[in-house]
Write a structure and sequence with these properties.
Distance between the termini: 49 Å
Largest sheet: 3 strands, parallel
Order of helices and strands: HEEHEHEHEH
Shape: elongated
Radius of gyration: 25 Å
Strand content: 5-15%
Number of strands: 5
Oligomer: single chain
Amino acid sequence: MSSASANGLVIRQGNQLVLTPRAEALKPQLERWLNDFEKHILFQEQFDPATSSRVFYIATSDLVEQMLAGPLLTHLSRIAPNTRVVFTKLDKRGFASQIESGEVDFSISVMESNHPSLMVTTLYRDEFVSIVRHGHPLLKSSDTVQAFCQYPHILAAQGKTLKGW
């Protein structure tokens, strides 16, 4: 309790602790947090895809949405016909806060994160692909890495970064 009084949340009046105006102002937000905690953690219902009408919010890029939307929605129409999916723009700098705040349920991206409150898993590993015109000299080279590095390249990246995907 000493940290709460040191932070100005409670004051002693006689033999009782009384909430400060700051604590009173935090009560509505704290009540929401506790209700969410109770609802999502303590009394979490078993998820049944066949009967669920939940809306899932997924933060991702346009490319991932384009690749995933069709197969995902086809699959969900069979196993979870009443669920809905809303794709939302991935905020690369703030995707952790998008998830923490409940704005989105999860994110699918090519970014790695070591954010302490996120669980991250690799869905798949991808490789870079090089495309050259028919008859390009690189196709005849036996030392492909060194020959490859001698030619100009196009970099696919997002924003102003020079780091490729």
